[in-house]
């Protein structure tokens, strides 16, 4: 086998591989000899089929198998021998001329093919001792724990029938019938429907008009459905609801005690507080880690400057661009609405893609040199988490990961990345700083309010959104469509 480099331009490489016809024929003869005792051909005793007859009958099919095996396996070996790593799957090309292909399969011509790829650039790791980060820590107060418990406990709150008029916080039990232009509409009626005034479960204006009603009252409520309401036949329309009040009940006081804990399925108030405190700390801890991670990645971005494989950058850009256009389409906006142009946005998100790829390569090199590994148990946990997100689709998801090349990498990559970040946190200079929850969340809330295209021009904001190269951005929460039987309820329930 002869390998000749035909292109070396930046990170791009092209190789010409030639395997002499005699070598291909020799490999074919070995396989024919192995098949000699196994094939059954009429007119010949087992094991007595002449090699020439076998070659005539099976030669081309065996050569075709050899060609497929060579183009599938040899590129990896060739790159390994050259001490190179391909950034993406190498591109293989060979003759498409049928006459030439026939000569190759007949062992009358050398087998030639070309390999085109981009190499992963060599990365010389730099000391991490100069990296300094501030880890913001929030101390969870007893008041915050109690406040969160009371929010959770709303589902366990009891109500007692009261005399008199309904007020904010009271529960109204009623029958209602919704009409548009005097005609009842599907999903606009219910009996014995319960609604807590102030819960904002129904469309704007509905609950406010229940203040002051009493059991036995009949009333007509007039409201206007939001323009973005999921049901197109109701969106933006004025509607009336004929209301018959069945009961008005006042909310009982919530007290954090063992009885409340029992209603929530726990053995004691102390255990309830312990769990809620842990949940709050976990939420703050997640934000803290992301902010620390951003600081590390920002400083790595300053330390490492090199050209990234264009194929990886293009693929990353397409992922980002697809999400940006999806977000704009869902919000009904354009690039002009976000004070930018498509050209400017493309330029900024190309820089973002380059950063993501470069940092991904750096983290990969750091992890590889440090011997960071993802265990089978960690992969199984990640797969289980995927299955939990899509109940009822477990079989399809399992088949996808079993049968899709590279699919498991989507599970491995974020785990590997977080383990590398853990390693870096053990090496860099970390200073803890106690802050309020408002200070901790301020930057994230500001970034969450930014529009994707408009703020692409801000390097700091764009970089912050690139901090997790494996997991990507989280989509903004979407409003759910209201069930038909509760068309009067706001779809943002």
TrEMBL record:
InterPro entries: PPIase_dom_sf (IPR046357), PPIase_FKBP_dom (IPR001179), Trig_fac (IPR005215), Trigger_fac_C (IPR008880), Trigger_fac_C_sf (IPR037041), Trigger_fac_ribosome-bd_bac (IPR008881), Trigger_fac_ribosome-bd_sf (IPR036611), Trigger_fact/SurA_dom_sf (IPR027304). It catalyses: [protein]-peptidylproline (omega=180) = [protein]-peptidylproline (omega=0). Residues 436-493 are annotated as: Disordered. The keyword Cell cycle applies. Gene3D superfamilies: 3.10.50.40, Trigger factor ribosome-binding domain (3.30.70.1050), Trigger factor, C-terminal domain (1.10.3120.10). Residues 454-463 have a biased composition (Basic residues). The keyword tRNA-binding does not apply. Involved in protein export. Acts as a chaperone by maintaining the newly synthesized protein in an open conformation. Functions as a peptidyl-prolyl cis-trans isomerase. Belongs to the FKBP-type PPIase family. Tig subfamily. This is Trigger factor. It comes from Neorhizobium huautlense. The gene is tig.
């Amino acid at each position: 086998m002869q390998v000749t480099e035909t292109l070396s331009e930046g990170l791009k490489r092209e190789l010409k591989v030639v395997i002499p016809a005699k070598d291909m024929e020799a490999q074919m003869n070995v396989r024919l000899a192995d098949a000699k005792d196994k094939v059954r051909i009429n007119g010949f005793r087992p094991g007595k089929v002449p090699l020439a007859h076998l070659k005539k009958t099976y030669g081309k099919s065996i050569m075709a198998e050899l060609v497929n095996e060579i183009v599938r396996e040899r590129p990896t070996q060739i790159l390994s021998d050259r001490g190179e790593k391909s950034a993406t799957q190498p591109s293989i090309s060979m003759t498409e001329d049928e006459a030439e292909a026939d000569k190759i399969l007949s062992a009358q011509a050398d087998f030639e093919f070309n390999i085109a790829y981009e190499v992963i650039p060599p990365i010389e790791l730099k000391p991490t001792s100069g990296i300094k980060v501030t880890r913001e820590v929030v101390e969870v107060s007893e008041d915050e724990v109690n406040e969160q418990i009371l929010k959770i406990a709303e589902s366990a709150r009891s109500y007692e029938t009261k005399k008199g008029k309904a007020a904010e916080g009271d529960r109204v039990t009623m029958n209602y019938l919704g009409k548009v232009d005097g005609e009842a509409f599907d999903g606009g009626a219910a009996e014995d429907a319960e609604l807590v005034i102030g819960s904002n479960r129904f469309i704007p204006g509905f609950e406010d008009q229940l203040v002051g009603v009493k059991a036995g009252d009949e009333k007509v409520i007039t409201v206007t459905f939001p323009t973005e309401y999921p049901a197109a036949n109701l969106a933006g329309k004025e509607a009336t609801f004929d209301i018959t009040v069945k009961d008005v009940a006042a909310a009982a006081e919530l007290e954090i005690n063992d009885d409340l804990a029992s209603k929530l399925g726990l053995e004691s108030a102390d255990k309830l507080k312990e769990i809620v405190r842990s949940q709050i700390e976990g939420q703050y801890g997640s934000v803290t880690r992301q902010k620390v991670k951003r600081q590390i990645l920002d400083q790595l971005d300053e330390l490492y400057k090199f050209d990234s494989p264009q194929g990886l950058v293009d693929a990353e850009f397409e992922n980002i661009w697809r999400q940006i256009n999806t977000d704009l389409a869902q919000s009904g906006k354009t690039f002009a609405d976000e004070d930018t142009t498509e050209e400017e946005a493309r330029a900024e998100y190309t820089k973002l893609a380059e950063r993501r790829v470069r940092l991904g390569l750096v983290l990969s090199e750091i992890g590889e040199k440090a011997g960071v590994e993802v265990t089978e148990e960690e992969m199984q946990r990640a797969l289980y988490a995927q299955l939990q997100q899509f109940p009822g689709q477990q079989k399809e998801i399992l088949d996808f990961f079993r049968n899709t090349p590279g699919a498991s990498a989507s599970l491995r990559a974020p785990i590997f990345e977080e383990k590398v970040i853990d390693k870096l946190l053990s090496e860099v200079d970390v200073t803890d700083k106690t802050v309020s929850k408002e200070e901790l969340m301020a930057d994230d809330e500001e970034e969450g309010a930014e529009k994707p295209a408009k703020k692409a021009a801000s390097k700091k904001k764009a970089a912050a959104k690139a901090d997790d190269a494996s997991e990507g951005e989280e989509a903004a929460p979407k409003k759910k469509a209201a069930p038909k039987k509760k068309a009067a309820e706001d779809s943002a329930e």
